[in-house]
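Workshop exercise sheet. Pairs work together: one partner reads the sequence aloud, the other fills in the structure field after running the prediction. Swap roles for the next sheet.
Pair: D.N. / O.F.
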Amino acid sequence: MPSISDLDDNGFWLLTQEGEFFVPFERYPAFQKARVEQIFNFEQDDVAFYWPELDIDIELDALKHPEKYPLVFTD
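Structure field:
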C-alpha cells in the first residue's frame, strides 16, 4: 500500500511498491497550497496516483522518469 513517508517545505516522499519518489513542489506547485490532510489523502490505480480533493493525478512513469516529462504541472 503506498503512503507519504515524509513532507517538508520542498515537497514530499511517496513510498510505493516500485520505490520511494520525491514529489517536489517546484515541479507540482498545486501541492504547495494544499493542506497536509489533502496531500495524505490519495488513491492509486495501476498506473497513476490521484488526489481527489485537489484534482491532481501523477502517473507512476512520471515519477520514475521525470526527464521524459519536462512540463511543470499547473492549476
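Discussion prompt: The CA atoms of residues 4 and 35 lie 14 Å apart. What would you look at next?
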